[in-house]
Amino acid sequence: MVRDGRVLAERNYRESRSHTASLPGLVSQVLADAGLGIDEVEALAVSIGPGSFTGLRIGLSLAKGIALAGALPLVGVPTLEALAWVADAAPGETICAALDARKHEVYAALFSATVAGPRRLTPDLALAPEALAGRLEAPCVLVGDAVEVYGDILAGGTVLRPFATHHPRGGVIARLGAERIAAGQATNPGALEPVYVRPPDAERPRSR
Fold it and tell me: What's the rounded Cα separation, in Å, for the pair 42 and 74?
């Protein structure tokens, strides 16, 4: 929850079970922490991926439902971009935001750390960790849960940020979303779609 660029409240919870059951409760807790009611919310921001296909659909569906019910502006924030903002990188360093995509792949994007914040260098990619390692040049800061899974492959010349302390934050999503809404980038809730980067398994052709 953000007001005038200041984070009023946020909750971070690493869910391993049902997002459907936990998300509404987390929304209620954040509103209570901020001392606000749902009718006082003026706009919504949601992380649109890449990430878990199921998690993205559930999160976006909840955001769309609230936005449509309250006639509120809604904006999507790229997950890797939001992750780059928690990398604690110094100006001049490269930030690699990378998430485990399963199937021996990672979702990743490179950013340049500047005084004004991360500046995107690449689109979101889905690639093997070895291929990503070949793109990394020092000084580089790696952030995301790919550190936990592929840290041994990605460590060369790279500073690894622990995912336990450098993880996606709701306050960052809200702040970046507020900036986009102020810039007129709100989206019709019905038209906003997740960014998968690679097609879901159900759409991928089977190999013989």
Answer: 10
